[in-house]
Amino acid sequence: MKVQEFMLTDVPVVKVGASLRDVAAVLAEHEASGVIVVDEAGEVVGVVSETVLASVLKRITDDAEDIRSETALWAEIIPA
Questions:
Q1: pTM for this predicted structure
Q2: CATH superfamily, domain at 3-77
Q3: Up-side HSE of residue 19: CA atoms within 13 Å toward CB?
Q4: By CB neighbour count within 10 A (0-12 exposed, 13-18 middle, 19+ buried), where does 58 fall?
Q5: What is the SS3 assignment for 6?
């Protein structure tokens, strides 16, 4: 069996400036596990997979939790 027999030919694509929300929407719309990222000239510059997207979202969530915790700590140290 050759790859051409089962590869996707209608591959989802986003431009390099796309937001995480845009990438997630394209993944959902195409029921795909990844998207190709292209520059303004249409040249492929990378790929974003579901795994990479989930990792980035987790890091953002963890960072947000760290910021909330730090803000709460400073609020206790320096009351309003």
A1: 0.69
A2: CBS-domain (3.10.580.10)
A3: 3
A4: exposed
A5: coil
List pLDDT tens digits, range 15-60.
999 998 899 899 889 888 899 999 999 999 999 999 888 888 888 8
Burial of 74 (0-12, 13-18, 19+ CB in 10 A): exposed
1: which 2 tokens? 């069996």
Task: Quote the tokens at residue 8.
Answer: 């996707």
Q: Residue 46: which H helix or E strand, with range? A: strand 44-49
Q: How many CB atoms are located within 10 Å of the residue 30 CB?
A: 15
50-77 and 20-30 helices, crossing angle to 10°: 140
Query: Is residue 35 classed exposed, middle or buried when 0-12, 13-18 and 19+ CB atoms within 10 A define those classes?
Result: buried
Residue type, 19: S
